[in-house]
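Subject: design request, 273 residues
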């Protein structure tokens, strides 16, 4: 019998999302011999530019932002030992409500079916056993994250190949812990002015808890490659050890499963090996 290696595919919206929400599982499963594939849907052009110039400000040149973020993405993949990086190259749509949402070529205005066909082709090529993406709100409502969710679910339906599909999530208890640590460190932690919809899930609704603390250093290094983006600096201020403490457990909701592996589980590949 020929042994086929297991394959994990993570579908993300922007360069840097792979590090924050799935850096641990990408590093851990690569170390365990799993073939890892990262699909990044957009080019990140609405991010901060070289020298910290903000989108919309004079001197924010989308082409140079894209080039910088592509190089950062490749360095992040090297840190996480991602075997295959695939970029779909759609234009970053910016935050919900930005005029960039509706620009031609934006990921948000791309018909779901069209982008899903391209992703389905990658699923047929790599035949992932496990696919990971965001929930239907893209975790926090960013249009590109919502779109990544939509095209992933459509591509999975078109191909019927992955045995398991997961959505990333964060336990509510982790948010509380995060706020506490930030306060202790004296890091400026702006409470939103308006009440926000609750992010993450109560612990009991989380199906899958993957311990990636042994790979916290790699996850930190991957995030550090994206230090050009202000929101990431926030996490880097924690330092390696506390970052690992806080971000070392990666959590998911299992939404498709053909293995009948009992829940809760501690391995995305439970039932497959
Ligand atoms: Zn993102």
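Subject: RE: design request

Done. Sequence follows.
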């Amino acid at each position: 019998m020929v042994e086929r290696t297991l394959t994990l595919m993570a579908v993300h919206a922007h360069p840097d999302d792979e590090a924050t929400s799935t850096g641990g599982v990408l590093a851990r499963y690569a170390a365990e011999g799993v073939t890892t594939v990262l699909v990044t849907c957009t080019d990140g052009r609405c991010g901060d530019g070289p020298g910290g110039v903000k989108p919309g400000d004079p001197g924010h040149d989308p082409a140079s932002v894209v080039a910088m973020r592509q190089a950062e993405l490749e360095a992040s993949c090297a840190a996480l030992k991602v075997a295959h990086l695939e970029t779909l190259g759609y234009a970053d749509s910016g935050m919900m409500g930005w005029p960039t949402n509706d620009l031609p070529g934006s990921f948000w205005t791309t018909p779901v079916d069209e982008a899903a066909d391209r992703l389905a082709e990658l699923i047929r090529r790599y035949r992932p056993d496990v696919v990971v993406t965001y929930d239907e709100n893209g975790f926090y409502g960013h249009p590109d994250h919502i779109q990544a969710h939509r095209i992933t679910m459509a591509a999975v339906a078109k191909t019927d190949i992955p045995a398991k599909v997961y959505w990333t999530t964060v336990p509510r208890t982790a948010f509380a812990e995060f706020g506490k640590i930030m306060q202790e460190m004296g890091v400026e932690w702006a409470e939103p002015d308006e009440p926000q919809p609750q992010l993450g899930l109560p612990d009991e609704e989380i199906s899958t808890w993957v311990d990636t603390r042994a790979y916290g250093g790699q996850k930190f290094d991957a995030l550090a490659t994206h230090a050009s983006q202000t929101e990431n600096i926030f996490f880097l201020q924690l330092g390696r050890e506390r970052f690992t403490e806080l971000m070392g457990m990666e959590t998911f909701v299992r939404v498709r499963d053909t293995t009948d592996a009992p829940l809760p589980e501690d391995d995305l590949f439970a039932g497959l090996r």
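The mean pLDDT is 93.
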